[in-house]
Amino acid sequence: MPTRITVTDLEASYGDVAAITGVSMAIEPCSVTALIGPSGCGKSTFLRTLNRMHEVTPGGRVTGRVLLDGDDLYAPGVDPVLVRRRIGMVFQRPNPFPTLSIRDNVLAGVRLASRHMPRGEQDDLAEEALRAANLWEQVKDRLSASAAGLSGGQQQRLCIARAIAVQPDVLLMDEPCSALDPIATLAIEELIVRLKQEYTVVIVTHNMQQAARVSDRTAFFTIAGTGEAGRLIEYDETQTIFTHPTQDATADYIAGRFG
Amino acid sequence: MTTTPTMTAPHRVPRPGEGRPEPGRRRAGDTVFRWLTTGSAASIIAILAGVTVFLIVTALPALTADWRTAPALAGGTTGGVGSFWRYVAPLLWGTAWSSLLALILGTPVALGIALYVSHYAPRPLRRGLGYLIDLLAAVPSVVFGLWGIFVLRPAILPLQDWLNHNLSWIPLFAGPVSKTGSTMLAAAIILAVMIIPIISSIAREIFAQTPRLHEEAALALGATRWEMIRLAVLPQARRGIVSATLLGLGRALGETMAVALILSPSLLFSVKILTDTANPQTVAANLALNFPESTPLQRDALIATGLVLFIISFAVNALGRLVAGRAETGRRKRGAA
Amino acid sequence: MITAIAETPHQAPHRDVRPQAPARLTARTLPYAARPSIVAAATVLGAAAVFVGGASIAGGLALAAVAGTAGVVVASLVVEGRRRATDRMVHALMTAAFVLAVIPLVSLLATVVNKGWASLSWQFITQTGGTAFDPTTLKVLTTAGAWQAVVGTLIITGIAVALSVPIGVLTAIYLVEYANPRGWMARTTTFLVDVMTGIPSIVAGLFAFSLASLLVGPKAFSGFSASVALSVLMIPIVVRSTEEMLRIVPDDLREASLALGATKVVTTLRIVLPTAATGILTGVMLAVSRIVGETAPIFIAASFTDNFSADPFHGPMQTLPVMAYANYKFPGTDIAASYQSAWGAALLLVLLVVALNLAARLTARLVSGARRGRSSARRTPAEASMRDTHP
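Structure tokens for the assembled complex are given below, as produced in the milestone run.
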């Protein structure tokens, strides 16, 4: 289901130290939004507030609102478990469960919610997710093999398959290609462009060219000075950000003058 | 002008035979130290070999004596027993049975504690709670025995009566129920309490070392805390849990004083755990109780039983370490500075 | 053209039209007051069982705990659903496991303190126990005293430390600094050390006894023999913890020293050992706290006695744990007094063990506090020794 994310005045902190503050933005359904900025500016922290993973870190606290099509994720009474079913995440380093087979990895999230799905349905679901992740042809003959035998790029696509098997509305990706070689990276970028037809995708990336290739809109974060909290500086169409940004800081970052 | 690097001390080419001062003596010191350390390592091997050899040598007279006719074996603990194997077999049964019961009672609790401390307890308390359980390991077994006699025995009498009353059709709980509480059940409970900290501390390590990445992967899929543990923590802990259990078993096999103090022993095969007249005795407790008052030949017989215990516990510990082996080396490599 | 992607171009993934549950974010949760009320009801049930049904207090508590947990889980199952209920149940079980282990610990410590406190006095500690016949009143006077046991403990433990620490530390140095890790000697030694940690303590006592019998003569009981038995138990612990400490010392330190022209001996003795020293000390303290409580090896190798002896090479010697055991097992004519002495000895022993443990952990924390900035290892050096001394 196409889903819009509206963030209002979000602040995320570790204990008393704010990591990001004052973030407000609206993310359109069925689009790819890239979050860019120098190291330590809080873009990963911001990403993790979107699926309530920030609070998993000891001391993690969030104030502000994140609306998923009108439902506030941080309203009292909201169960983080259910939030994470609707918003999936792919991490920086591929993390398939090492003791599970490829097929069981894909179905891991699905099995949590519906215990007694008939075997045929499970197989169909796994095949679909793997096809959608561009991995089916490469693993269809070894679905019961361990996931540890796959290459880095394949493992990451397996994690993507696992995330989309539960049919989330939003897919968050935290620097998904930073641990991969360029060929695998390109494969994933292709996949992301394809995925946006069905999902709202938010991707954190260190690589500006990747943001330019893949995203519809780009948000630039940075910190004002050491020890300060990160802020959203500019958020616009990707074309605009990269060709004629309105903020000086954005222009400096794009031109490589810092970060 | 070229700048040549100057050394702080005037430099001249050393003549042959010169160079580092007193090379002979320093090398001798090196060699001496090296041999000292190698010798220490060799002494470990020697000690273990020595233990085995001495025990065998001392036990031999008892093993070769004729148990039916030797007068020295006619009284006391070995009286009326036809052969060494007839003597040691019920003892081995007692050792195995009590250890098995202790494992059944203690392992689930130990694993539960390990999970609790590593994943459920409030974060700032985790270290302190871990210390608390480790304190249990520090208590000497003779103190456990005294506590068992004065506190545990009377405390479980109602439980024993209840079990015998309602479930006596199960051979374990068959009567006659003990009035004093010096039962196999009491011994098993104490043994379980004693092995819990061992199993728990190893398991805790393993659970706490689950890669954060896998835990977050599970949580991001929308797993509850228990589901995350099932997906990310437990599967990678299997080998370590087996090894921890084996080490706990090794400890239970060798436990002496607590069992000696609390169990009312006999020399027989039995599975009853609620009586004080039909309890098989363990090798170690039997040794402790009978050694001081034995004739020399009886002592040798007891040492022979000790030898058997040594071999069995060696095997169990070796197995435990082998199973842990690959997990350990993996951790060592990662942790090496 | 990217050739790595061997997939045929795939159309838009088609969504499964299985009917889905409406995508809610909130779930029905148990009302805030539900849990306390269920627990209260369970407590009432337990109390009823005790006062009306005649169950024991322990039984009543157990009933309340089980009923309370079951009640909360069932309520959760009905209101919150299977997954939440399972999560709650597991949480309750884990907590119960922890409480189950703490109960004996607390009970044990409380018992020892409660029963032994009456014995604890300066006289008890510094006076040798014994009986004396008073000719004036024609009575046998028993004095309760643990001095012989205290001195025996110190002497026997001291000799054991003197025997095991050099061998243990040198072996660890061999394994870390000199040995080829894949050579047969290193692997055999490591394997045997690991297995030695599991030797039943009574077997060590038997070994010392038979060694003494063969070398000195039959019934050659002595404190030294007991020390030998304890060393067999201590050495593997010292080796393992020292080894771990030495491995944590970063190689950079060794290389810097060697680059300055120092030999391996000097590097090891002057650089590596001092760096690891506090950790090694912690390991030794924990090893001592473990063997100081051993009973069977002592009375097998050093027999029973009530007399004071400061000569470890001739004749029996008593230690605190043996005193506790003997006073219970072989009480004098005044049984209550003997039992009292037993508890007194037990209390002294527990105090000693706890003190050693605390001292070891404090030392570890001091080191870790100083090292925190430098150490890149996950665990600080001294704390790592905690694990290995509890095999």
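The longest helix of chain B spans residues 23-64. The CA atoms of residues 127 and 160 of chain B lie 36 Å apart. Further analysis is deferred to the final report.
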